[in-house]
Every structure is written in structure tokens, then in C-alpha cells.
Task: structure prediction
Amino acid sequence: MIALDYQPFSVVEDRGFRELMETLKPHYKIPSRKHFSRYVVLKLYSDIQTHMKQASNHDLETVKSMPLTIDLWTSQKQESYITVTNHYLTRDFEMKNHTLECSHFPSQHTGSDIYQSCGINLPLTQIPIYVVSDNAKNMSSAQTGKPVEHLSFAAHNLQLAVSDAVAEVGLDSLLKTCRSIVGHYKHSTKSKERLQSLQKKTEFTTAFSNSDGGHMEWNFIASYVTILEPLFLATKKLCRKNVPTLLMVRPILYSIEGFLKNYIRSRTGEQGSGIRLARALLKSLTARFHYIRDSGTHLLATILDSNGDPLEWWKSWRNYPCLVELAMHYLSIPATPAASERVFLKAGLTIFT
Result:
């Protein structure tokens, strides 16, 4: 429970846990919390680490590439941490990833410090290494001149494109109003109950609107939701676990661009803020993803896609060994920092519980 569910060591002293153990095994003496923190969990960590190294060494004999994700994060105590994960496909097309590093990173966040800390100097000189991170200058410089190929997080670039478009159109005031409304009803029980009562009597949008200006703002919001929904769905799809994601980037990008062009074309002559947001977003996506169109890595990953589950599909193509090796090489590359984000969440629970 302590390791799997991130329960605090004190759980072994909780009344409910002790009563449960008394029911399951009446004569078992539960060790103290200090025993778990000083011995049991440390031994468990050592055993799992040894097992993972043995399993990884066996897998590394057949992997065709070694993608890494690198991400930095800051705890609630304003302490910096760095996380490195690796990703690869086995011969059976099983997607695997491991956390190689999750440690305190108090040094300056320069490219050289990041490179030294993340342990890119792996004993894999004959295996292509891909480093996937955000496109901050320090991350880019960490890979400059190194025997690795640097790729940007696609989901991160989507969010940056949205931020660019929002800033260009000037939606800050409207977003501030929305946050204020949500915050008010989130922190006031009476207001929330009154809102729920109003929602039962009238349409949701009129629960806040007392003027034509209010109705107009809600119409704007409705158009913004329509425009941004494809990017929301794309982000969710790109952050899925244990599935190839790099192959999705080009199709998703072109699909979003096609949607925005159709949206703009269908409203020819309009000059509302919805049209302006769509145009600004299309421009920002073009700028943020300019590298995609010339990236051979993204292109090959897209070509290796299938209509169904690509991993299951390629597993059945053993009679084409060259193509299978290409699939093993490119389909393991992640497009998002989802693995690192999951580590952040778990590390945060460990640090603060």
C-alpha cells in the first residue's frame, strides 16, 4: 500500500489498517512505521531496481532506438527537479518505458547542466538516441552537438499555439471574467446552491446574463469552445499511455488545420472574435509546427501507421524484417511528456505525504 498507493508510512498505525490486519491474520505483529521507512521500502526499491536493470539489459539487446523524455518541474516548495524517462519497443512490439532519473536539480538550468544530469551518456553508441523535450533554449542547447536527435513535445506546442492566439486576439479580459465566475461559485456554497437552482429554472447561459452584452459574451465563448475543442481532443489523444504517439502528430495537425480553414471559409465576410481566433490559431500552428513538414522522423512514423492498432498490426508482419525494424525504431518515440508528467504527480505525492 505504501509503495503502490503512495500511502504515508503512518498508515501502518491507522486504526482501520490494524483492524483489517487483525481480521486477516490475528497473530501477525505489524512492524513500526520506522521499520518500513528505514528497511522495508529501501529493500523494495533496491529489489525493483535490480529487476528492472536485468529486464532492461535483456530488452536492449534487440531495441532499434532509444527515445528519452526530459522535463523539469518545480515542487510546491519551489524546489526544482529533473525527470528522464526512456521508451522502446521489444521484439514482441510491447511498449515499455522506465524512469531513469527523478532527482533534485538545484543547479542552474543551463544546457550543459541538464545534459550532465540527465545521463544521456548511455552505453548505446550503436543505437540511435532521440531526446524529446520542450523547445526551451536550455533544452535545445543541451542536445546541440551531441549524438542525439532532438524533438519537441507536440502537446506542448499545441498549448503554446493556443496561448499565442489568445494573446493576439486579446481574450485575456474574457478569460479573467470566466476564471472569476468559476472561482466565485467554487468557493461560495450559497452561491453554488443558488446557481444550481437557477439552472433548473432557466437555460445555463442566461443564469449569468442580465444584459445583451452578457449574451454576446456567451456567444463568443460558444464559438471559442467550438474552435478549441479539436485541440483539446488532440491533446488527450497524444497523452495516451502505452500507445505510439509520434505517428499521430502530422495527421492530427493537418486535421486541425483543415478544420480551422473550413471554419473560416464557412463564415466568409464575418469579422467576429471567433473568426479572428481561428485565423490567429491557424497562423500560430503554422509557426509552431514548421519543423514537422521537413522532419523525416515524423514522416516515417506517420507512414508506419496502420488503420487499427499499429503494434498488433506490425507484430503480425514478421515476414518483412526490414519494415519491422523500421517500425520498432520509430513507433517507440513519444510525442508528449506524459510519462514525465505521471512521474511528477507521483513524486509530488511522495514528497508531500
The chain is about 55% helix and 10% strand.
